[in-house]
Diaminopimelate decarboxylase (Pseudanabaena mucicola FACHB-723), 472 residues
Amino acid sequence: MTTVLPSLREDAIATSAIGNVESSLDKLSPNQQLLPLTAVVNSHDHLEIGGCDVVELVQQYGSPLYILDEVSLRTGCQQYRDAFTKHYQGKAQVLYASKAWSCLAVCAIVGAEGLGIDVVSAGEILTALRSGVSPSLIYFHGNNKSVDELIYALESNCTIVVDNWHELKNLARLAEEQSIEASFAAPRIMLRLTPGIECHTHEYIQTGHIDSKFGFDPNEIETVFAFVADSKLNCIGIHAHIGSQIFELQPHQDIGGVMVEWFKLAGDKYGLKFTELNIGGGLGIRYVESDDPPSIEDWVKTVCAGVTDAFNHAGLALPKLLCEPGRSLVGATCVTAYTIGGSKTVPDIRTYITVDGGMSDNPRPITYQSKYRAVVANHMSAALTQTVTIAGKHCESGDILIKDIQMPETQAGDTLVVFGTGAYNYSMASNYNRLPKPAAVVVKGGESSLIIKRETREDLLRQDCLPERLRQ
């Protein structure tokens, strides 16, 4: 017998019979859940995800371990795709912002659901291509693309989202050099513009305000349009992104009105026939109980209404509308399982519980002061009797995964599971203190499959070189 998690799931699911849970999953927006959609407590009082006992997964694959719920990821993809079909009268394309987690399996899953891929490096291009995604659905971002990366993107036939003058001039030069070839196709580009819209989020992940390293500033837009119109570049549209982990809908309602003015200016004054508009991503997820992000459908509905109203008012045909969700697709679909080690109590101050990972597999707490929720996966019904701080094993006093969380009594060997670790955890992982990076598995229907091998100690030395004169 399995039970749902009443304190961690929306009321609609918490009151459902377990037999109805599976059929109800597609009605839940994954980004609004603390847990992956398939999470339940099994008859052993263990956390189970995708039909797999998390404690048994740790026994099989070791820890730390990233556990990806395939149902949750596919559901999010389907909800984005279906919401655009429902709420937008023009063409639309959802792109997965793979910087959140770029690996072959994740890209293959989102690609199979009809999504394209947003990439920011040659390595992410290669990953997307090797996963089977068509290059026509790969859009290359970044504020300092090297010439080698630009050539690789052009040779791969990706669309390049141009961020600045240095890049634009490099592309124009490459287009001139290649134009003498009979097989030449003009580089397909979009222009990233800074819309000047601010959102209430952490300042390090605000990317749409005027003071930003990303995109062309509004005061140089006409000069950019004139340059592109006189080049051999095939500019198909414009792009903007206003930040991430956003809970507000109004900024996404407003972005259409800002972008349509530039769309119209480009056509009327410079003869640029834009057909695509990319409004970025940014929808937040629920990391802790107090977080309250909009649903995927509500976000899409808001974006579509804003763009439709703006283009209709301007008398322009609706563009092909693109968006780039990353965190809201993959963030809540994954958990990280750790093995608890020792504990330390500082009288009248704090009790620390240590785990076998930390800032090397999840750098967000020490980088952004990000908050997370966790449970002891092998004692799911145990009473929460103590306030503890979950500390990582790294040689940094700031290596704290979760500060002051209510937990049951624990002992060495228990399995701690931290929720919402699909976005910017593995992708930002490091080998700090020479710790090997963890393994990752995908779970579905009671089966688990390795998608990233655990690094070994020997892997850590693979790129090291020891000059002969230093050998002893």
